[in-house]
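## tool: complex_structure
## caller: assistant
## args:
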Amino acid sequence: MAISENRRSFMGFAFGAVAAVGGAFSLVAFKKTWDPLPSVKAAGFTTVDLSGMQTGELRTIEWRKKPIFILKKDESMPKDEKRDVIVDNVAYTLVIGLCTHLGCIPAYIQSEQMFKCACHGGEFNINGVNVFGPPPRPLEIPPFKIDGTKLVLGEEGPEYLKIKTEA
Ligand code: FES
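## result:
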């Protein structure tokens, strides 16, 4: 009796161990499928290396299922001392790409240096500030921390806290 109970509990343990290992492999496979490049995700944080960006380039990445616009400004683009994110002496616009009216994703119109929302005609300037239509406030800036030439989205670094209190 005691032997068969021991066997049963061993079988249960063995099955549980196999299931756990299988689950771990599935998670690894799942993560590989969904990880977008060049960002690296971990526990709600997304690290983006900006060193390869061209001047004037807009990059859209995903953070916590939201589109994030990162625009590396060129000299012709107006600066915004309160909202610009300065990484390696270069100014970036960093915003969550969801219209502050009803949440549509605005398009970046490079020729006009504007973000335009097709849903109800809202417009944001190159700094993400609402300048026309129904949006009640600027595009939000996601929490970030600067780590060399990288941005860690989801972490509240001193630069983010400064923008949050001043903008
Ligand atoms: S959702 Fe963008 S203007 Fe209405």
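## assistant note: The longest strand covers residues 66-72. Residues 99, 101-102, 104, 117, 119-122, 133-135 surround FE2/S2 (inorganic) cluster (CB under 6 Å). Handing back to user.
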